[in-house]
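Standup notes
- DV: blocked on the single-chain target, sequence here:
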Amino acid sequence: MRVIISAGGTGGHIYPAIAIINKIKEMEPNSEFLYIGTHNRMEKDIVPNFGIPFKSIEIYGLNRKELLKNVKVIKCLLGSFKECKKIIKEFNPDVVIGVGGYVTAPVIYTAKKLGYKTFIHEQNSVSGASNKFLVRYSDLIGVSFKSSLKDFPKDKVIFTGNPVSENALKAPIAKKKDYKLSENKKLVLIVMGSLGSSKINDFFVKTLNKFKDKNYEIMFVTGKDMYEEVNKNKFPKNVFVVPYVNELASLLKRTDLIISRAGASTLAEIISLGIPSILIPSPYVTNNHQYKNALDLKNIDACTLIEEKDLEEELLINEIDKILNNESRIKEIKKNLKKISCDDSQTIIYNNIKKLIAR
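- DV (later): unblocked, structure below
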């Protein structure tokens, strides 16, 4: 199989794209790939490290605050169509896949205009601007949340789940001793993204001392940029502060409760592994999509949702205790998460791409 795949901007788009590539490689080892990304975002560094051929185009997202800056945005967008046409015709793929981010707009649009088969995947419960635009230029659309099915044409859309969920299920189980954690105590994992959030980190720095008499342990993942500043503080013996966890899915398999943002990839792991969660969506993302992601779980009673504006020490501590000290509640959450889980997302996507190519 010859595949062009495009995704950009954030790990929430890039890692699902890599998961799809890895599944195709597993099923068809002789497949060839070309990844098209932006020239200045994180995919330009991440993707080549996986040994995936990479080409970049100069493209920028729309500036909603300073409209005059969009003159350059539009100029680069128009130029990107010409560049994509050249790249796609030279590679001559069997299928072109878009996994989110504004870079996918010219790639999928151009591929469809050239007559190639196209597939896009939406990780969030609410569609991003690029995927909204690309609906008419896509032969098939995969969604991570069942609630999103109604947002797309019935003859095009399929529920696939998020492809990173299958990676989480395959991850080895972490050894608590590797993190200096106790085997006989429950673990609360606090993680707010790879780079952390200064406002949330400040809140937890003030709050963590309130856990010194608790019979469970807390691991606080600060994010690499915040670690040195946070680690200057003294915390109780049952609180562990780390900058980053490389194999988060492995540690999640030893986690009793996670407190996190509500990005699509994080939720995919929470759902697939059946982890009780307290979600604090970032209010600073486009279309407030993290809140809407979290609401999908909240609506089936599969998480606790606290908006950042409502976050208080006593509220958070009470919610943690209510979950950890109630085994029937934990079982109920796990049962509800199972209702929306998709354990073979990568396989579903691969099989449907094969069918699309064969049409």
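- Follow-up: The mean pLDDT is 93.
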